[in-house]
Structures are given as structure tokens and as C-alpha cells.
Amino acid sequence: MTRAALPGSQFPSGNLWKILPLALLVCATFVLPALAQEKEKMWRTLSVSGRGVETIPTTLAQVSLGVEIQGKTAEEVQQEAARKSSAVVAFLKSQNVEKLQTTGIRLNPVYSYTNNVQRITGYAANNTVSFRIPTEKAGTLLDDAVKAGATQINGISFVANDEAIAAAQKQALKEATQDARQQADAVFSALGFKSKEIVSIQVNNASAPPPPMFLRAEAAKVADSSTPVVGGEQEVEASVTLQISY
Questions:
Q1: Mean pLDDT of the 71-90 span
Q2: Is residue 172 part of a domain?
Q3: What is the annotated signal peptide range for this record (predicted)?
Q4: SS3 of 64, please?
Q5: pLDDT tier at 222 (50, 70, 90 boundaries)?
Q6: Is 191's pLDDT higher than 90?
Q7: C-alpha count within 13 angstroms, C-beta hemisphere, residue 116
Q8: CA-CA distance, 119 to 150, in Å (whole number)?
Q9: What is the gyration radius of the CA atoms in the chain, in angstroms?
Q10: Which residue from 71, 166, 167, 236 could staple onto 77, CB 3.0 to 4.6 Å apart?
Q11: How many C-beta atoms surround the C-beta of residue 171 within 10 A?
Q12: Which residues are CB-neighbours of 183 under 8 A, at least 6 positions away?
């Protein structure tokens, strides 16, 4: 029995079945090398990470200070802490400090132990706030904050402003990219390979301020003298990972 020719076909039905395997072979001839090249491109890659670091001066002091009150009753202690804290916050607002926010409100019983017996002898309230101020103004402001009612200086750290950090990050990224490329060139040169193209780029930014310097102090110890505050430097880091085919 002979196969009927397909409608619109220019080939006899018998020749069609002879030509079809040849057409598939021709397609495979073109497709397989392309797949092989793609596989080679996928596997023959070098991943290298570069690092860039920019050091910039700090211009802002990040300060944490608070009010602590102790007394016989919880209500008495809380009201006095609220009164003094309000006075401190009003003073800080008048000084136009940046990023002023409450960071803690605590009210805890105070215990005493006699013959292994625990009993409550009073209560302690502690309210804390944090804010930013130009470093050169921090010493005088701390002294005036104590006069306004603050009883604790919990800590101070130093950071650069946002614009300086953003500019430093961009520069650090450039340095990290150049570092990664130089490392890759050194590897290819040592192995006798030639780089072809960058297959992927991974960017990781990190800006870590220096650890805070804690200046724990009671009001009476700092109220009679000007508190010296000296800033430092901050490192802004960036890393870039390049995947390069060869």
C-alpha cells in the first residue's frame, strides 16, 4: 500500500519520509555545537571578589542619654521620671538635634535581701532617648542636658553624615570592581588564559560605623566641667564579585 501525499506537499509521499531524517540530521548538526558552546561558556568561568574601603572623617555624634529616678512608690517614681524626661526632650528639641527618638522606658521594683528573704524596698524608673548632633557641639550640649534633668549619659558613637557615606560607597564600589578585575587578570595571565566576557556581577555594600564608646557617668560628675568630645574616622566598605568566562 502506498502512503497518500499530504495536501499541498510538493514531494511525493515516498520521498517525504526519505527527506525527513536528513532534515533532522541537518538541524542536529547546527544545534549540538551551539549547545556545546553554551555548556563550555557556562562551565569555563572564574569567580573573583574585590574589596574597596574608603576612610572618611566622622562629623556627627550619636548620643544616648536618660533620666533615672528612684523612690518608694511606682506612681511617684514614674511621675518624676516623666517630668524630668519631658524637660530634657524639650531642651533637645530647642537645640535642633537630629533623629531624636525614645529608645527605652522602664519601671522596675528595687529589691533587698535579708536572711535570704526578698522584699521590695522601692521602685526605679528609667527613660532614655537618642539623637544626633554635630560633634563639635556635643560636649556643651551634654553638659546642658544634665542641667535640664538628664542623670545618665549611656553612650556616644561617631558617624559621618549621609551624603559623605553615599559618596564614599560609590568610590568604594569603584575600587572593589577594579580590585576584582586586577585579580582576575593576574589569574588568567598566570594560567595562560584569556578572559572573554563578564557573565555576572554581584554587588554587596556594607557601611559599618565604629563601635560606640560608652561614657557612662552620673550627673554630678560632669555638671561642673565641660565634657570633651572628639570624633574619629569611619570606614565604608564595598565588595564586588565578578564571574568571567574564558
A1: 96
A2: no
A3: none
A4: strand
A5: very low
A6: yes
A7: 0
A8: 29
A9: 35
A10: 71
A11: 15
A12: 48, 50
Q: Using the predicted structure, report yes or no on whether residue 218 has a pLDDT greater than 50.
A: no
- 128 found inside a domain: yes
Q: How many domains does the chain have?
A: 1
Residue 103 belongs to some domain of the structure:
yes
Q: What's the CATH number where 72 sits?
A: 3.30.70.2970
Q: Tell me the residue length of the chain.
A: 246
Q: Which residue is associated with the grid cell 550619636? A: 62
One-letter amino acid for residue 6 of the chain: L
Question: What is the span of the domain harbouring residue 103?
Answer: 60-159+211-229
Three cell numbers written together for 200: 555576572
Look up residue 57 and give its three cell numbers: 572623617
pLDDT one-digit tens code per residue, 125-166: 999 999 999 999 999 999 999 999 999 999 999 999 999 999
* Residue in the block written with cell 522584699: 119
The angle subtended at Cα 134 by Cα 129 and Cα 136, nearest 5°, is 115
> Hunting for cell 576612610 — which residue is that?
55
Q: Which amino acid is at 116?
A: N
SS3 at position 228: coil
- Rounded-to-5 percentages of helix, strand, coil across the chain: 40, 40, 20
Residue (of 156, 96, 151) closest to 127 by Cα position: 151
Per DSSP bridges, beta strands 233-245 and 45-57 are antiparallel
Rounded average pLDDT over 6-23 = 54
Does 92 reside within a domain?
yes
Cell numbers representing residue 154 in the block = 549611656
Question: Interior CA angle at 185 toward 184 and 187, to 5°?
Answer: 65
Residue 79 gets which letter from DSSP? H
